[in-house]
Specification:
The structure holds 3 protein chains of 3 kinds. Chain A is built from 13 helices and no strands. Chain A is an all-alpha fold. Chain A starts with a helix and ends with a helix. Chain B is mostly helical. In chain B, helix 6 packs antiparallel against helix 9 and helix 9 runs antiparallel to helix 12. Chain C has one domain: Rossmann fold (3-Layer(aba) Sandwich), CATH 3.40.50. The longest helix of chain C is centred in the middle third of the chain and has 18 residues. Classes of the chains: A mainly alpha, B mainly alpha, C alpha/beta. At the B-C interface, helix 15 of B face strand 1 and strand 4 of C.
């Protein structure tokens, strides 16, 4: 499986590049924001933790840049991101792992749902060219795919929450509840996630529908589709196994590239809805100049994106035998 | 730029205008392109002549705060007593500048990296492609947030430079694969055989045929720049004193505009971002159709028209 | 040793809808085919021969459309049949071999899977029977059955082409339509493929319509030869007769462009000029601008189809009836 090995290698290289950038940015910025942050830790942390943070942010440069860099990388590999200021004295890793399930549940589920639904709709729309789906949907979705996530979020809050009062305005759950695996809690959390989920779904599904439709149209003009018709196969089979399976391949690659938008959308939506996920916490850390937490969350975001890409690559390898042989 | 072969080839500059003419003609015939172009034109006018169109000074906090739409203030006023419509009109300028400057920078870099990688091949291609893929994968939004976080906020210049310097990777990939497919085309072979220099081949043979792809790339980059900048300003990382749609949304959110009965303050700038984004998206989609005729809406002619 | 008439094409006309207006790609073409007959159709690129093939097998897709004529196959007019009845004819009685197997075979399915789905669509054979039959047809075209479970990209060009022919023979149809099946191969492979096709034809008793631009290829294999130019039938007759005595100036030009390896060295003659623009066809004979024997009469109106000694030809040279009466 040379293919998998290559992709894993890419995973590592990208992760390294991102964290190196993360290391360099505070050092390249004019002024020293980190210094201000340090003063807030003083007196509250033990000396060794303080040291670790100093090294991570290049404050009090007793070490050479190179040594600091390697110490920083070493800390990351061992999962030592320091202590959070916002949620003092939690370890950064603890906070990150607490926020993660919320984001996975909301963003993860809706993104996959949008991809699957969008691909299906695009498939059918292209199959029935000139039909209702094909003529009406594309222009609509071209426009909706340009909507900023957060604006749609604001709109939906205003409409469904304030005006109609159907759904809660913000948060992941009612702050008065106990966080437990009780039905009351879960149903409450679900209720709170309807609006954010709908926002993400509506904004991102358009892109999938459009690209799948365009892919299908190109594929339908291919010889092997004509051959499938010549063989007298049922239209269903032609649509699925001959056209659909080939048309979805570029979409899977596109999935990887769309993750940038997914992440930005997730951050903004969580912000607007005060939804306690990774994105929301990320912005909290920025606001509080809690750089240690910020770095940890940034790392988490990169890992999540790379994992999603690996999954899409694996799916491509399963569906397309040519990639397996290319290696 | 010294290209001695230019003297020998008067045909070369002629080609650009011909391509442009084709593009304009194609745009006129496509409904989506027309819609997008008109929208864009409206915003361009607003950006160039805000003073003539906006009724008031956008930052003047002189009016009664929090008012709904009225004859004097078509969209009402903000919590600080500013005229919303004027803010919208003046805000256009910043969004247009970001769209074109960041989009242009990103496209220029995409052309540079994409075409060079494909044309140079070998190790150079390998390295450039790896860099492209890595930047492509790293989510830009969090990265820009991190940069802005250390700087306290991101002014216009920072926004343009960062968005442009990070947003070229998608276009570079597309341009690279397009250039690769052209490397073996006959007209390039003939140029090489004629002894034309590499730069000439790239500029006058390859680029003109990729114009529609470059334009599509620019439109995509502009769209992404507008949305990302608005998002950044909305969460408060833009310059809070600047006049832009995103900043309007930021102040609106801070003052609970939606809940406090000033919904237009939040809705109106959002609509503008959406419309400008839609303009770019429509033009982009239309360009896809123009460069790939198979995607155009299919027309069905009646049989009677065609039988002899 | 051909049999009864099985295919009767009358007045078939196909039009393409293009930006510049309707293009008549196939212009009122008549042809007939008997059982076990090998008919070759030759002509330049763009003369409409492939379009004719797909029109006969009802495989055209928009913007191309059959707007006139009939295709009577085994007693039924294919043009007016609905998809369901067409499907029952497909592959069992009429199969297709396309030009490029790389494009005509579904890249994400194995050869076995592609044979299996057509067997399932038209019969109730069990999986074991299907596998046995698939291996049998592969052996017919000299492919080792071990390749049955390969993907198209894993086979060589020649093997792919032969695999496609094998697939066309799964139900031993009455008629196999071949659209330039040898164009993607080298000269040696071309000839061996032709020999194999001819052998199979004689062994299994199916009729063949073979489209090619290389007239020398079919010289020794086809029973009858049909020449097309600019969408029209210009000559149709027994191969040997046409080769010995080509009646139409275009046919003469074509044959002279492919000199024989044997015999004296002759000057290589092409046909100067280019075919007419089918969006604006000329009023008279379409070949007249390039014809060495053209006259005034040729430009006035389209020459009618005549029968001269068993050969049908569309040229005024052989028209004994004066122009005024001919209308």
């Amino acid at each position: 499986m040379r293919f998998v090995a290559r992709r894993l290698g890419f995973f590592v290289v990208t992760l390294w590049a991102a964290m190196t950038t993360n290391f360099l940015i505070p050092r390249l910025m004019p002024g020293n924001a980190a210094l201000a942050m340090m003063s807030r830790y003083r007196g509250r942390l033990n000396p060794s933790s303080l040291r670790a943070i100093e090294i991570a942010f290049g404050v009090n440069n007793h070490q050479s840049l190179v040594r600091a860099y390697f110490t920083y990388l070493g800390n990351i590999v061992r999962g030592r991101f320091g202590v959070s200021l916002t949620f003092f004295p939690d370890a950064v890793t603890h906070d990150v792992l607490q926020a993660l399930p919320w984001t996975l549940a909301l963003v993860g589920v809706t993104t996959i749902l949008a991809f699957v639904l969008g691909t299906l709709v695009g498939l059918v729309a292209a199959w029935r060219r000139g039909g209702m789906l094909d003529s009406v949907l594309p222009p609509i979705f071209v426009i909706t795919s340009a909507f900023p996530y957060f604006w749609l979020a604001l709109l939906s809050i205003w409409l469904f929450s304030i005006k109609l009062g159907w759904l809660p305005t913000s948060g992941g759950y009612n702050v008065t509840d106990n966080v437990a695996w009780s039905w009351a809690f879960i149903s409450d959390a679900l209720e709170h996630s309807i609006l954010p989920a709908a926002t993400i779904l509506v904004t991102s599904i358009g892109g999938w529908i459009l690209t799948m439709r365009n892919n299908m149209i190109s594929v339908l003009a291919e010889d092997y589709v004509r051959m499938a018709r010549a063989k007298g196969l049922s239209p269903w089979r032609v649509m699925w196994s001959y056209a659909g399976r080939n048309a979805i391949l570029p979409n899977l690659t596109g999935f990887a590239m769309s993750l940038g938008f997914v992440v930005s959308g997730a951050i903004l939506v969580e912000f607007v809805f005060n939804y306690p996920g990774v994105g929301w916490m990320f912005l909290q850390s920025v606001e509080n100049q809690d750089y240690a937490l910020m770095q940890g969350l940034f790392f988490m975001i990169i890992i999540a994106v790379l994992t999603a890409i690996l999954a899409a690559d694996a799916a491509t390898a399963i569906l397309d035998p040519r990639t397996r042989d290319l290696g | 730029m010294s290209t001695p072969s230019l003297a020998v080839k008067p045909v070369a500059p002629f080609r650009f205008s011909g391509v442009l003419r084709n593009l304009l003609r194609a745009t006129r015939r496509n409904r989506k392109a027309m819609a997008g172009a008109i929208l864009l034109l409206v915003f361009l006018v607003l950006a160039i002549f805000p003073g003539q169109i906006a009724p008031d000074d956008p930052s003047a906090e002189i009016f009664a705060p929090g008012m709904g739409p009225s004859a004097h203030h078509l969209l009402g006023t903000t919590a600080y007593g500013q005229d919303i419509l004027s803010q919208l009109v003046w805000g256009t300028r910043l969004s247009i500048i970001i769209a074109f400057a960041a989009g242009g920078l990103a496209t220029a870099l995409a052309v540079l990296v994409g075409v060079s990688a494909a044309y140079l091949g070998g190790i150079a291609d390998g390295i450039l492609s790896l860099i492209t893929d890595v930047i492509l994968v790293i989510p830009i939004f969090p990265l820009v947030i991190v940069i802005a976080a250390y700087r306290k906020n991101a002014g216009l210049f920072t926004l343009i430079v960062v968005l442009g310097a990070l947003g070229w990777s998608y276009g570079a990939r597309q341009l690279r694969s397009q250039t690769l497919s052209m490397r073996t085309r006959d007209f390039l072979e003939s140029a090489r055989v004629r002894g034309e220099r590499r730069l000439y081949v790239i500029l006058y043979e390859i680029l003109p045929t990729m114009t529609s792809l470059i334009v599509a790339s620019f439109l995509g980059a502009a769209l992404y720049a507008v949305l990302t900048a608005a998002g950044l300003q909305f969460i408060g990382l833009g310059d809070p004193n600047s006049q832009s749609w995103g900043t309007m949304l930021y102040w609106a959110e801070n003052n609970e505009a939606l809940g406090a009965g000033m919904p237009l303050w939040a809705i109106a700038p959002g609509i503008c971002v959406a419309l400008l984004g839609a303009a770019f998206a429509l033009l982009n989609y239309a360009f896809d159709e123009i460069s790939n005729p198979a995607l155009r809406p299919s027309r069905r002619r009646r049989r009677e028209d065609l039988s002899k | 040793m051909t049999g009864d008439c099985m295919l009767d094409v009358r007045d078939l006309t196909v039009v393409y809808d293009s930006d510049r207006g309707p293009i008549v790609a196939v212009d009122h073409v008549d042809l007939d085919l008997s059982e076990r007959e090998f008919l070759a159709i030759v002509g330049e690129s763009g003369c409409g021969k492939s379009t004719l093939l797909y029109a006969i097998s009802q495989l055209l897709s928009p913007p191309a459309e059959v707007i006139g004529g009939e295709v009577i196959f085994r007693g039924a007019n294919m043009v007016s049949l609905d998809e369901g009845r067409l499907r029952s004819i497909r592959w069992r009685h009429l199969s297709v071999v396309m030009q490029s197997a790389m494009n005509a075979l579904n890249p994400v399915l194995t050869v076995a899977a592609q044979m299996r789905d057509v067997c399932r669509a038209h019969s109730s054979m069990s999986d074991a029977e299907i596998e046995a039959r698939s291996k049998e047809v592969l052996r017919l075209v000299s492919i080792d059955p071990v390749h049955l479970h390969s993907y198209p990209h894993q086979l060589s060009g020649g093997m792919r082409q032969r695999a496609m022919i094998a697939m066309a023979l799964l139900f031993t149809p009455d008629l196999v339509i071949m659209d330039e099946p040898t164009s993607a191969l080298d000269v040696v492979a071309q000839r061996s493929l032709m020999v194999q096709v001819k052998q199979l034809q004689e062994k299994l008793g199916f009729a063949v319509i073979f489209v090619t631009h290389d007239v020398s290829l079919v010289r020794h294999f086809s029973d009858r030869l049909m020449v097309m130019y600019a969408g029209q039938l210009v000559e149709l007759g027994a191969t040997r007769d046409v080769f010995e005595q080509p009646l139409h100036p275009y046919t003469r030009g074509l044959l002279e462009a492919f000199p024989s390896i044997h015999g004296p060295k002759v000057r290589l003659l092409g046909i100067p000029g280019a075919p007419p623009d089918l969006a604006r066809p000329p009023a008279g004979c379409r070949f007249a601008p390039r014809c060495p024997s053209a006259s005034e009469r040729c430009l006035a109106s389209v020459p009618r189809l005549l029968t001269v000694g068993g050969i049908r030809v569309r040229c005024v040279i052989h028209d004994q009836v004066p122009a005024e009466v001919a209308q």
